Amino acid sequence: MPKTMQHTSGIDQIGQNILQVILSSSNSQTILSDLACKIGEFFPVDACVIVSDDASSSNGQQIGWWQKKGFSEAEQSLLFQRLRRLQLKQDDRTLASCTSMTKSHLFDALENLFQEILPTKTWLGKTTRYQQKTNGLILLFQSQSTQWTHSESELLEKISESMAIAISQVQLQQQAQTKTRYQALLNHLSREISQSSNPDLLLNTCLAETCTTLEVDRGMILMLKYQNPLRAKGRLQQLVKGTVQIARQWNRNENNSDFRCKASFSIKDSDLCQKAWHLAPECLAITQGTSFPDLSPEQLPDGIESNSSALLMMPLMGKKNSESQPALVLGFIVLQHDSPRVWLQDELDLINWISVQISTATIHHQTLNQVQSIVEERTSQLKWSLDVQGKLSEKMRQHIDQLQKLNQLKDDFMNSMSHELKTPLTSMKMAIKMLRQDQISPDMREKYLNILEQEWDREYNLIKDLLTLQQVESGELTFSPQELDLNQTIEHLAQSFDAKWQPNKGLTLKTELSNPALKIFTDSESLEHILSELLLNAGKYSDADTTIELSANSKTTLKGKEIIISLANYGAGISPEELPYIFDKFRRGKGVTDRAVPGTGLGLALVKYLVDHLNGTIEVASEPVDDDSAMFITTFLVKLPQFQPSIG
After folding, report:
1. d(Cα 455, Cα 442) in Å, to the nearest integer?
2. How far is the C-alpha of 312 from the C-alpha of 292, rounded, in Å?
3. What is the mean pLDDT of residues 543-565?
4. Tell me: the pLDDT tens digits for 184-228?
5. DSSP 436-487
6. pTM of the entire predicted model
7. Does the N-terminal peptide bond of residue 293 adopt cis geometry, omega within 30 degrees of 0?
8. What's the mean pLDDT when you consider all of the chain?
């Protein structure tokens, strides 16, 4: 049995304790528990519960709990759940489970509740009233069956007056803190909306901070995509057709680092979405027991659960183009709470402001996307036009370059032909004139006849080169491969070389074959022309009394067998600037005219054509013999594939 207490001193003491808790605590979440502790210790009981019934709070009752012993966590949790569902009535009577006094409806419900979940506990309860309204409830519990004395009931009655004031102060603090949170949310979202250029990040921020501030359990942002957007503005139609896209979702008990969710379902499958759509621009608010999304299990998107809870669906409205036609519903902000919840007007006003801001940002983003799409389309068209103009300009430039090259080629051709035709003709005319003299010795006659023959050969070779060039370029050059003895071919050319260059410049030809019996299967006439022209070119540009090195060997590659022919000479060399153009038609290196080197500029061009004709490759390199030497070694490297002779 609780001890008998001195009323006056006890009431004064507990009153001071209650006042001290109110003045010293700034956290409304813990004040009720602190008050429960003071009362529980004042009455030698096992547990004390303080319930605050704030009509301005969306969550209904707030509960403070203190216990000394006797309650398990399961009992405590179940007790809280049931107490939050009670609606406190205005009642000033103190009643206990062990008395036979007439009970109010509230205390009837309490006794039934405690008899169900706490059958071994006895209790004493008293409602608190402030300004003629019930604002709370005090409950005392004992773990053993006991009789509450009349003095204890009277003492609780007296204490309830101070507790009514204390609970009122707690409610005022909670209201002030709630308004502060709301204002902080408005300020922060205003800054985010004005500064953010990322609509995805903006939606994430708005959803997360709204759910956190309002202390709800889950939140979603739904976006609507209509089958017929023009008809979707009329609210009179029975069924709107389209798709609900769950663009964002938030859950109090999960990691919400990424709020995006691309799940979707049909609008016609959700009665709540249809109802919320018809109510727009007003919101759909349900206080308890509503499952959302209200879909059958097979219609629920993957990763989405249907939860029974209090529900709020605030529409996101599009731009209103006229007074007679309603605005299009862009989507909904959906908030859910697991326990019953009254959606207060302040909360509705706050969420409505947020929905207007999200709608405005969404419309702004869509408008920007449309403008950007038009700009990109126009930019693409302009780019295409510029590309076409650029290609036309490039074609024009290529044509101009080609004409310039043709003009240069014509000039080079005329200069070369003028020199190569006039010089032999002049020599031939001089020789004929000398041969007409009556008194001419046999030696002189032989000399001039040789001049005539040499100049005729020169003119003939020029014409032959021109005809060969024409055949190659027109594709009329024939290809007759046969097996050749490379050693014999080179030996024959070496004899001709010695006869021409040994007496005049003292040049020596050194030949080296990896195999004396080296065979090559290719076009005979083309190969001889290539080797003859390369030897002629080497003789022209070699310094006197030097050696020209000619080598040949075979090599097996992944593509088959090939013959590699190398020809090197020592002389002035080829400059790096001229090297890329060495095989161009009628092009002659700088300075060759000054050095009186004969030629038309066709020789190496024909060599390149003929090597390509044989499916081979040719490379050229010209490097100084050493760092301080003015003499260069110029090397031509010809690679020819080996065709397999046909057996027939």
Report:
1. 20
2. 10
3. 89
4. 888 888 888 777 777 778 888 888 889 988 888 999 999 999 877
5. T-SS--HHHHHHHHHHHHHHHHHHHHHHHHHHHHHHHHHT-----EEEEEHH
6. 0.51
7. yes
8. 81
What are the DSSP calls for 297-346, one per residue?
TTTSPTT---EEEEEEEEEEE-----SSSPPPEEEEEEEEESS-----HH
Percent of the chain with pLDDT over 70: 85
DSSP state of 260: B
Q: How far apart, in whole angstroms, are the C-alpha atoms of residue 136 and residue 127?
A: 6
Task: Tell me the pLDDT tens digit for each residue of 268-324.
Answer: 889 999 999 988 889 999 988 888 988 888 888 877 888 878 899 999 998 877 777
Burial grade of 189 (CB within 10 A; 0-12, 13-18, 19 or more): buried
Residue 595, burial from CB neighbour count under 10 angstroms (0-12, 13-18, 19+): exposed
Query: Does residue 104 carry a pLDDT above 70?
Result: no
Please choose, from the candidates 98, 177, 163, the residue with its C-alpha nearest in 3D space to the C-alpha of residue 134: 163
CA gap 213, 326 in Å, rounded: 31
The hierarchical CATH code for the domain 478-641 is: 3.30.565.10
**Long-range Cβ contact pairs of 588-593 (< 8 A, separation 24 or more):** 588/412, 588/416, 593/419
Q: Domain segments of the chain: what residues?
A: 7-179, 198-343, 478-641
Q: Which residues pair with 130 in a beta bridge?
A: 133
Rg (CA), the chain: 54
Task: With H, G, I as helix, E, B as strand and everything else as coil, classify residue 618.
Answer: strand
Instruction: Note whether 51 and 61 are within 8 A (CB).
Output: yes
In the predicted model, what is the mean pLDDT of residues 462-475? 73
Task: Write out the two tokens for 521.
Answer: 């299967």
CATH number of 7-179: 3.30.450.40
Q: How far is C-alpha 611 from the geometric centre of its chain's CA atoms? A: 51
d(CA 159, CA 396): 103
Instruction: Assign domain 198-343 to its CATH architecture.
Output: 2-Layer Sandwich (3.30)
Give the separation between CA 565 and CA 640, rounded to whole angstroms.
8
The pLDDT, as a whole number, for residue 619 is 93
Structure-token pair, residue 309: 């809870």
Dmax (CA) for the chain in angstroms is: 174
Residue with tokens 């007007």: 345
Handedness of CA 558, 559, 565, 566 (dihedral sign): negative
Q: What is the pLDDT of residue 319?
A: 81
Other C-beta atoms lying within 10 Å of the C-beta of residue 225: 14
Decide whether 7-179 matches 198-343 in CATH topology: yes
DSSP 8-class letter at 130: E
> Contact, 457 vs 427, CB < 8 A?
no
Q: Name the residue type at position 269.
A: D
